[in-house]
Write a structure and sequence with these properties.
mainly beta, 3 strands, 1 helix
């Protein structure tokens, strides 16, 4: 096990490093909506978005 963490590297080309982010909001009818965003860290381009009332791990794994 490493004693000191190392800083994350910066992407120097497309599709080298990506990030995921979960977001949620509540609709006017009270239902919660969830979003999974996948972003390329080099150009900040959106690689994919999944949106639903529920995002179980099986669906998230298929996006990645």
């Amino acid at each position: 096990m490493q004693e000191h963490s190392e800083p994350l590297g910066d992407a120097t080309q497309i599709n080298q490093i990506g990030s995921i982010d979960f977001m949620h909001d509540k609709r006017s009818n009270g239902r919660v909506i969830r979003l999974l965003n996948v972003v390329d860290d080099f150009n900040r381009g959106g690689l994919g978005i999944k949106m639903d009332h529920s995002l179980p791990s099986e669906r998230v794994a298929r996006v990645l």
